[in-house]
Task: inverse folding
């Protein structure tokens, strides 16, 4: 059974950093791209970015709103995808979901909540 | 970046009625890389349709997707009580920026 479990969320002050993890199981992690999607309270879904599998170079793509501040990485030996978030802003407050793949997402985690507030 | 517009914002219908949701893109969506998701409060989204018209595994056949280019439609042929939710479209043909639409809420009339 495919499972994705996000962790690392919490309360953080503006300008600080936070790293989220997405621990995967039930499939060969290294074969898949992994994506992050977020949802601000009461708002719609926002695509954050993705990382390709090593077979496709392991390269990344980001939404304009987070480019230069957020970094997605992966550790295939541990089946974990990471979202490093720097220079956090209040508007980054959201539930962060990881998904399997780079396009349409069948598998989603339950999400982890990030609150950016002083 | 491709901008998606969904209409209507809210659709008020009764169980058993037909629901027609629209998603319009600011530019042509490459290879019909358009997906539809359903989201209920407190839950992660659920993939319904990918490739504009292919139903995801386990999705009932009352859900259907159609369209190409810039105009796409999600149709729910007969609303069941569990179908009242928010629906999002997403394009994933133009990278970077696999944008989502703002959503359509289907609520009970």
Result:
């Amino acid at each position: 059974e495919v499972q994705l479990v996000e962790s690392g969320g919490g309360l953080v002050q503006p300008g600080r950093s936070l790293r989220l993890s997405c621990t995967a199981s039930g499939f060969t992690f290294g074969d898949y791209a992994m994506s992050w999607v977020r949802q601000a309270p009461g708002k719609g879904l926002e695509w954050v970015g993705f990382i390709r599998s090593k077979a496709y170079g392991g390269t990344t793509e980001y939404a304009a709103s987070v480019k230069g501040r957020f970094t997605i990485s992966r550790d295939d030996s541990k089946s974990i995808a990471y979202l490093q978030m720097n220079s956090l802003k209040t508007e980054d407050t959201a539930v962060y979901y990881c998904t399997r793949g780079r396009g349409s997402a069948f598998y989603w985690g339950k999400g982890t909540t990030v609150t950016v507030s002083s | 970046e491709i901008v998606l517009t969904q209409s209507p914002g809210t659709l008020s219908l009764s169980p058993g009625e037909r629901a027609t949701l629209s998603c319009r893109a600011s530019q042509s969506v490459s290879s019909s890389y358009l997906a539809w998701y359903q989201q209920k409060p407190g839950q992660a989204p659920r993939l319904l349709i990918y490739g504009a018209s292919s139903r995801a595994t386990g999705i009932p056949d009352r859900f259907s997707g159609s369209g190409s280019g810039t105009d796409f439609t999600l149709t729910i042929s007969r609303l069941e009580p569990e179908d009242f939710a928010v629906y999002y479209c997403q394009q994933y043909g133009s990278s970077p920026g696999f944008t989502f639409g703002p959503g359509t809420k289907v609520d009970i009339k």
Remarks:
- The CA atoms of residues 18 and 47 of chain B lie 20 Å apart.
- Chain B has a mean pLDDT of 95.
